[in-house]
């Protein structure tokens, strides 16, 4: 019976964690470049149950032998192992602002591959899909958190407060004749990136990264004056939240039933 209590409780905790993930997705439905998190539910390892019995082997009851009989396996509940962002392309939204830049997915040689803008944050190089860029007071192109947008050489892009046009391959043509190319990184498996918050990611030790322009089979488009929106599906998220709530409620009822049974066992059966 106690195993049933733990199983129901673990189900409640897993659904509570899932609800938190879904709520965060819902709150970022209008956040530029946001990638919806997906909670990965996993079952705890199965346990094998055995029945232990003692039998007398002598007439004077002085000797016993213990036997074991296999009953079967039992699951001990579920848990949220991790949350993985869904890197599916979000809808494009035109802003008319020349510094806003949208990265449109093309074709990739790897199933979970994706292309990102290169950033220079306070903690080092990072990646983002949020192209809501602006020009800071020193003339550098930055994201909405103040991190520098990098070119192909890994240097911050100095605009000198000049206007520019952006080509589909990410080449910036300034009015004063200068040219820059946006730094773009291709990640073979985007699921291996570490999420840092504010739509910023860093490469883990397992992640394989390369220059997007130098990687065979990688195609993409850059759109100036637009941003990639969140890829949160509002209707699906609301449906998943209702499902998580109902599953939580079901586990709660099971837990209550176990608690009432234990109460009867202690307060009523124990008196006989």
UniProtKB/TrEMBL annotation:
Keywords for the protein's UniProt record, in alphabetical order: Bacterial flagellum, Cell projection, Cilium, Flagellum
Residue ranges occupied by any Flagellar basal-body/hook protein C-terminal domain in the UniProt entry: 223-267
SUPFAM superfamilies: Flagellar hook protein flgE
Main location: other
Record-linked Pfam families: Flg_bb_rod (PF00460), Flg_bbr_C (PF06429), LlgE_F_G_D1 (PF22692)
Domain Flagellar basal body rod protein N-terminal: 5-35
Compartment list: Bacterial flagellum basal body
Domain Flagellar hook protein FlgE/F/G-like D1: 112-172
Taxonomic superkingdom: Bacteria
Family from the record: Belongs to the flagella basal body rod proteins family.
Protein name as catalogued: Flagellar biosynthesis protein FlgC
Organism: Terribacillus saccharophilus
């Amino acid at each position: 019976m106690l195993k049933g209590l733990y199983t129901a409780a673990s189900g409640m905790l897993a659904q509570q964690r899932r609800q938190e993930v879904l709520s965060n997705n819902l709150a970022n439905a209008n956040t530029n470049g946001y990638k919806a998190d997906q909670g990965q539910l996993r079952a705890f390892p199965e346990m094998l149950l055995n029945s232990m019995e003692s039998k007398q082997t002598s007439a004077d009851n002085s000797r016993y032998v213990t036997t074991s009989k296999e009953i079967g396996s039992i699951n001990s509940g579920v848990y949220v192992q991790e949350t993985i962002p869904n890197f599916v392309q979000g809808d494009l939204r035109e802003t008319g602002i020349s510094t806003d830049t949208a990265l449109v997915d093309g074709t990739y040689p790897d199933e979970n591959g994706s292309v990102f803008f290169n950033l220079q944050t306070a903690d080092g190089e990072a990646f983002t899909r949020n192209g809501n860029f602006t020009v800071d007071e020193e003339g550098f192109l930055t994201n909405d958190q103040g991190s520098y947008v990098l070119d192909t050489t890994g240097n911050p892009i100095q605009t000198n407060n000049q206007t520019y046009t952006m080509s589909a391959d990410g080449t910036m043509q300034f009015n004063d004749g200068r040219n820059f190319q946006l730094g773009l990184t291709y990640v073979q498996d985007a699921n291996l990136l570490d999420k840092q918050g504010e739509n910023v990611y860093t490469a883990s030790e397992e992640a394989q990264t390369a220059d997007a322009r130098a990687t065979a089979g990688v195609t993409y488009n850059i759109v100036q004056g637009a941003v990639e929106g969140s890829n949160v599906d509002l209707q699906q998220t609301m449906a998943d939240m209702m499902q998580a709530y109902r599953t939580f409620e079901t586990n709660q009822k099971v837990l209550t039933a176990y608690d009432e049974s234990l109460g009867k066992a202690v307060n009523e059966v124990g008196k006989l």
